[in-house]
Amino acid sequence: MHTETSNASPLFTAENVIFVYTRAQAIADGVLIDATELAREAGFRFPVALSAEVWAQCVAWQQEDSDRQIHQDETGRLWDVLWMASFAIRACAGARQSNRLPFRLFVVPRDGKSLQAREVDLHVHVGPGDQGEPVLTIMLPLED
């Protein structure tokens, strides 16, 4: 049997990296919204962030929205997102071998007229943080 010694360099090395965008930068830029503080109250052990689009569709709510539509507040809406993500994680504990878990919740759209909630599909993604630690990100199904 003939074996060859490869002098090929590893594909991913520091000198091969073109661009790095960290989770901390995404939070600072508003691409991700950090929800870790309330998430800990909801039972999460790892840092949690929501994509800006999830925040806009499922959490954002001002007094003007309550005046036009139905009374709600951002903390309650965020709690609903976190609670349903937590419930989905607990419901499939040990059964899934994926880093993405779909879940659904009902949200009153922030459109100036809706009074009834509609179902929204979301995903919770577990992946490495900036230091390789586990972090969770709640996003829309087509977001990465």
Give a verbal description of the structure.
The longest helix is centred in the middle third of the chain and has 18 residues, at 74-91. The relative contact order is 0.17. The chain has a five-stranded mixed β-sheet. The chain has 144 residues and is α+β, with helices and mostly antiparallel strands. The protein has one domain (30-139). It is built from five helices and five strands, in the order H-E-H-E-H-H-H-E-E-E.
Distance between the termini: 45 Å
Strand content: 15-25%
Largest sheet: 5 strands, mixed
Tally the beta strands. Answer: 5
Low-confidence stretches: none
Report the order of strands and helices.
HEHEHHHEEE
Work out the count of structural domains.
Answer: 1
Overview features:
144 residues, alpha+beta, five-stranded mixed β-sheet, 5 helices, 5 strands, 22% strand
Brief characterization of the structure:
By secondary structure, the chain is an alpha+beta fold. It has helices at residues 23-29, 36-41, 52-59, 63-68, 74-91, and strands spanning 32-34, 48-51, 100-107, 118-128, 134-139.
Topology of helices and strands:
Layout: H1 23-29, E1 32-34, H2 36-41, E2 48-51, H3 52-59, H4 63-68, H5 74-91, E3 100-107, E4 118-128, E5 134-139
Parallel strand pairs: 2-5
Antiparallel strand pairs: 1-2, 3-4, 4-5
